[in-house]
Amino acid sequence: MLFGNFWHQDELCVLFADTNLGKSILAVQLGHEIGRGACIEPFANNAPPAKVLYIDFELSPRQFQARYNDRHATHQFTDNLYRAEFNPEAQMPPGYHTFEQYINSGIESLIKHIGAQVLIIDNISCLRSSSTGNVNEALTLMKHLKMLKTKYKLSILVLAHTPKRNPANPLSRNDVQGSKMLMNFADSAFAMGESNTTRGLRYLKQIKQRTGLEKYGVENICLFTLQKQYGYLSFTFAGYAHEFQHLRRHTHDQRLNLRLQALQHQSDGLTQRKIARTMNLSVSTINRLLNWTRVSIR
Asked: Which site in 43, 80, 224, 228 is 20 to 30 Å from 238, CA atoms measured?
């Protein structure tokens, strides 16, 4: 384990969330703790200290420094955490056919130079073409990362955005940009959501796993609060909960639409458990929908 059941050694893992929720903050925190051979309590890290390469496609050095500074102190990161900044103004040198090929070559060169054992990409959505909205650039990098994982025995964490979504619905693999194509390359995945009960409260939920069983699904999400002490911006574990307690309440029309979907699946011969998996809802919620006259979804 690198981050409890969320991320294991030798895995290509995807962490996705909406903008400004703090996935970059969590990723830096993970890089720092893994570099020290420590963990974010209570999620185990059983690996020894490792060299972590953090590729930052988002923040400038000044922005990054401001995030880990306050009037009392500047946070001192472990020497095992190496941050590389992406320069969007860089010109592609001779010898490369595409800019993606140039980026891939640069990442591999850094891995070899540092002797990295862990790679964090923040974030792959920045490679998506804003003009076309396709994910070809991101897919090219994902294929390359899969190769690098095997070649250098890496553990990789890739950050991605979610497109605009309904905050009343539970998080699922369909919420990541380029969902099906990107998720096919991932060994594991987890998502960060925003609680609608308490300002600033976040939660993590397992979305995909190949190592072990799902532990932090819809009925057992992990709550976190964000704090800053002595310049260190980080998340602190705050307990477990059912995801539906932290989603925005469905309107009457949304509940009716869900009920109609559930009834259609039932008429197709699906059991309540299969309907729950198809609609990404709990079995108890499906039961209430199928027997609903005037009841709210929690």
From this structure: 80
